[in-house]
Write a structure and sequence with these properties.
Shape: globular
Radius of gyration: 23 Å
Oligomer: single chain
Structural class: mainly beta
Number of helices: 2
Order of helices and strands: HEEEEEEEEEEEEEEEEEEEHEEEEE
């Protein structure tokens, strides 16, 4: 892997003999340090926890006429500790270069674009409910007089190729399909999405559920709608996500077949802000439903605001309160200010105050609530180099049992973009 990384870097900076080939390179590098008190939300043992981490991301692009190869190289994406350089695979100390994206793009016309390969997926509209991840895709984007149409297919698993002697094994392949539309009416953006997912494996609670080499699957239908725009004095963005799940036919590796189950998960997000001269001031309202009989084993399922959303520093981004990547099965009300001017053009401030209510039933979080506040500042050392420092505090209250002691964090980072 290390040789591959060195070869790619040499390729990027080499002088080519072909004038029609062009290279572009953008990227970022960050180093960060984080301190937590009571990270585990204990009621009587508020131990501290801290770590350093850093990563380098390169986005090379090779352009040949109307075609291009687009890549993302992740280098030294790690938590610093002696003797271990890769937190994903501790057995390979030199496995520190990963080609996370690599896809071919060709523009047939100004209005028609084809993308083929490993690219970003799991995103649409705002960041609400999104979890950006690598997806093998074939995607077509067609510009029309009324907006852009996006159609794609994703290959998630190729089960049939490893079970060719089993009848109907090919039906357990995981293929996703989506079609979306993006248009603007005056200053209002409207973006609906129809996304159908057919998954041949599902991981939940540390257990993997498999199919039975038939035509059943975990089927998920996602209908998403983003509406956002600028109304002059205020701007807004909103998203509604409706998910319908069908777990018919799942097989537990030890317990055998599970009962069939259908459930829905709904999320709603609204962010309204005013771009004032002194700061950007706004408020967020977000909701995630919870079904106590949802999930493939009827063990409960909540809508996850997900990894890209960043609802709050502690309970959302770090702890994923509710059992997901961010807040799950929760309601959020947040007031915030960002880009607060200080009189020094190089220094800006921001902060938020959030109140969170659990929508979960028949769990330890039923009727739980919390509030969290945070403050951060950014110092622009140069146009490309920024230093960030922040602190956040969270307090949680349970309906039953002992409440955890407060949780707080102090963090800072330095980041170069180019």
């Amino acid at each position: 892997m290390k040789k591959l990384g060195i070869t790619l870097l040499l390729l990027l900076f080499a002088t080519t003999a072909y004038a029609e080939i062009k290279f572009e390179l953008t990227g970022d590098m960050k180093g960060a340090g984080t301190y937590y008190q009571n990270h585990d939300m204990a009621s009587d043992d508020t131990v501290s926890y801290s770590y350093y981490d850093g990563d380098l991301n390169l986005y090379p692009k090779i352009i040949v006429g109307d075609s291009s190869v687009n890549m993302k190289l992740a280098i030294r994406d790690e938590t610093w500790r002696e003797g271990v350089y890769d937190t994903d695979d501790t057995t390979e100390l030199d496995n520190n270069v990963a080609v996370e994206r690599c896809f071919l793009q060709h523009k047939f016309t100004e209005n028609t674009t084809l993308d083929v390969g490993l690219m970003d997926g799991g995103t649409w509209g705002t960041t609400f409910g999104d979890n950006k991840a690598a997806r093998y895709r074939v995607k077509v984007t067609q510009m029309t007089d009324v907006g852009a149409v996006v159609a794609l297919v994703e290959k998630m698993a190729e089960v049939g190729s490893t079970a060719t002697s089993t009848e109907d094994a090919e039906k357990d392949d995981a293929d996703n399909f989506a079609i979306g539309f993006v248009t603007k009416i005056d200053k209002i953006k409207i973006a609906p999405l129809f996304y159908y997912l057919n998954l041949s494996r599902y991981d939940s609670g540390g257990v993997s559920y498999y199919l039975d080499n038939g035509n059943d699957a975990l089927k998920r239908l996602l209908l998403a709608l983003e509406i956002s725009g600028d109304l002059g004095a205020v701007a807004f963005e909103a998203e509604l996500d409706y998910n319908n799940y069908d777990s018919k036919g799942f097989v537990h590796p030890l317990a055998g077949a599970l009962e069939d189950n259908d459930w829905t998960a709904i999320g709603f997000y609204l962010n309204v802000w005013a771009p004032l001269d002194a700061a950007k001031v706004g408020g967020v309202l977000a909701y995630g439903s919870y079904d106590d009989e949802g999930g493939p084993a009827s063990s409960g399922f909540g809508f996850d605001f997900n990894d890209d959303f960043y609802s709050t520093v502690i309970l959302g981004d770090e702890l994923g309160w509710g059992g997901g990547e961010d807040l799950t099965g929760m309601s959020l009300l947040k007031l915030y200010a960002s880009d607060v001017k200080t009189g020094n053009e190089s220094v800006s401030l921001g902060g938020y105050l959030a109140y969170i209510m659990s929508n979960q039933d028949d769990t330890t979080l039923e009727d739980a609530n919390a509030f969290e506040l945070g403050v951060d500042g950014t110092y622009k050392i140069t146009e490309n180099l920024k230093y960030n420092l922040g602190v956040a505090y969270a307090s949680v209250s349970y309906d039953e049992g002992d409440d955890p002691d407060p949780i707080y964090t102090l963090y800072h980072s330095i980041k170069l973009t180019f």
